[in-house]
Design brief:
The protein is an alpha/beta fold. The protein has helices at about 25-35, 80-90, 100-110, 125-135, 170-180, 195-205, 225-235, 250-255, 270-275, 275-295, and strands at about 35, 50-55, 55-60, 60-65, 95, 115-120, 140-145, 160, 160-165, 185-190, 205-210, 240, 260-265, 310-315, 315.
């Protein structure tokens, strides 16, 4: 069931996972833990977990998270650059969240294949400026946190003094056009319904991240629960997912349900904050091994061979429930 955190000395930097009924992270963890896996061992192969994305080769579909501001945590090292270094060393997709252009440039110098996610600033000129800066500093894709607009008081959110805004379908279509003119795919991060996924598909979005943004929406549906509906309307759009991807077994379940790749987050955070790149590298290798193990046990030879009928939930095949 729920995985308890035990990170002595890091309590102030890594908040405990709330257990109240409205918390989406708790429900996501609970749902993932109750999905069981059917063995299909006869005739299986050692799995190939390599991934090709937008013309680039990666060693695994398990990606880094879009962390933000970790360099401002008062540590004696630079976590943003350190997990980027782990991504480069392991051949994984790196993500970077809200950072100034100056700070983003320092992270980009590491040389990891990076996707930069930008906040939905009310000032759309700032969004386009950061997209342009990212592409000129080695980002191979750019995107927007489309779900970070409404604050906990029900009004438009303000982050680091920057007023955010909501986005229309026309806005998203315009940002897609900007990204493509810059020569980069566009990612909409924070999609949690087939309705919004369909809008993104019609707008020309290249990929979405199915996510509740570590529980921004109270009672949010777990990404694993909604991915099958989203897949039906996704067309050629890539489906990424995050939230509670704590090990390779979680990654397996999301991939089996239709995700093309997944991002971890809290799983690497304690090691990252304490020991930097080496700890992140160890954790990601462990996650990749767990993914390969389950793929081997279920006859999945490569990422294009997942079968959702292998998943069970409360005595029934999950695909017959969702």
């Amino acid at each position: 069931m729920e995985k308890e955190a035990n990170w002595p000395g890091l309590e102030g930097l890594i908040p405990a996972l709330p257990k109240d009924a409205s918390n989406a992270s708790w429900h996501t963890r609970h749902f993932l833990d109750e999905i069981l896996i059917e063995e299909r061992i006869i005739g299986t192969h050692v799995a190939d977990i390599s991934m090709r994305l937008w013309g680039r080769n990666f060693t695994s579909p398990i990606m880094m998270p879009a962390f933000s501001h970790l360099n401002k945590a008062g540590l004696d090292h630079l976590p943003m650059e350190e997990y980027a270094q782990a991504a480069k060393d392991l051949g994984l997709v790196n993500w970077v969240g809200m950072e100034s252009d100056t700070d983003y440039a320092k992270i980009a110098e590491v040389g990891a294949d990076t996707i930069r996610i930008i906040k939905p600033f009310l000032d759309h000129k700032k969004i386009r400026s950061q997209m342009d800066f990212a592409v000129r500093h080695q980002a191979f894709a750019v995107g927007i946190d489309i779900d970070h607009s409404i604050g906990t008081d029900g009004n438009i959110d303000v982050v680091d003094g920057e007023k955010l805004g909501t986005l229309t379908a026309q806005d998203i279509e315009g940002f897609v056009k900007t990204a493509h003119e810059l020569g980069a795919p566009f990612v909409a991060k924070g999609v949690l319904s087939a309705r919004d996924a369909f809008i993104c598909e019609k707008a020309g979005v290249d990929a979405i991240v199915v996510s509740h943004h570590h529980g921004r929406l109270p009672f949010a549906v777990p990404p694993a629960m909604i991915i099958p509906d989203i897949k039906k309307v996704s067309g050629n759009m890539k489906i990424f997912a995050d939230c509670s991807v704590d090990d390779g077994r979680d990654a397996y379940k999301l991939l089996a349900l239709g995700a093309d790749a997944v991002s971890t987050g809290r799983a690497i955070l304690p090691g990252l904050l304490k020991d930097g790149t080496p700890a992140v590298t160890v954790k990601l290798r462990q996650m990749n091994n767990q993914l390969k193990e389950l793929m081997g046990y279920t006859g999945v030879a490569a990422l294009d061979a997942f079968d959702p009928t292998v998943l069970w939930y409360h005595g029934r095949r999950l695909v017959n429930i969702l």
